[in-house]
Specification:
This protein is mainly α and about 120 residues long. It has one domain: 434 Repressor (Amino-terminal Domain). It is about 70% helix and about 0% strand. The protein starts with a helix and ends with a helix.
Length: about 120
């Protein structure tokens, strides 16, 4: 379970870093950590301290809660959700309303299908 958590958090940090347009070196410098430390976290070798995680979230403009939610899901599910969450951060209010309408339509169609 711990190894899975490390991988999930590491993948989320990597996605947040890439979304922010940062290299590992740049993130390490801004977070006052080494490139190796960032690499180890992203690969799931180590978990960052809460202080480091908070700093990374500030730098990448990601809510710390996004890094820790749904950690009981598969890494693939978590990666897909993180990518969606990062896209959502860039949408305007009108775009979010449109997306909600689309999601409501998908949910309505699913009600008609047997599982």
């Amino acid at each position: 379970m711990k190894r899975e958590l490390n991988k999930i958090v590491g993948l989320r940090i990597k996605r947040a870093r890439e979304n922010a347009g940062l290299t590992q070196e740049t993130l390490a410098e801004l977070a006052d950590r080494t490139k190796e430390a960032i690499s180890n976290v992203e690969r799931g070798v180590n978990l960052p301290s809460l202080e480091t995680l908070n700093r990374i979230c500030e730098i990448t403009n990601v809510n710390i809660g996004m890094m820790l939610e749904d950690t009981d899901r598969s890494p693939n599910f978590v990666d897909l959700k993180m990518q969606i969450d990062l896209h959502l951060l860039k949408l305007t209010e009108n775009e979010l309303k449109l997306l909600l309408t689309i999601l409501d339509a998908i949910s309505e169609q699913r009600k008609d299908r047997p599982i």
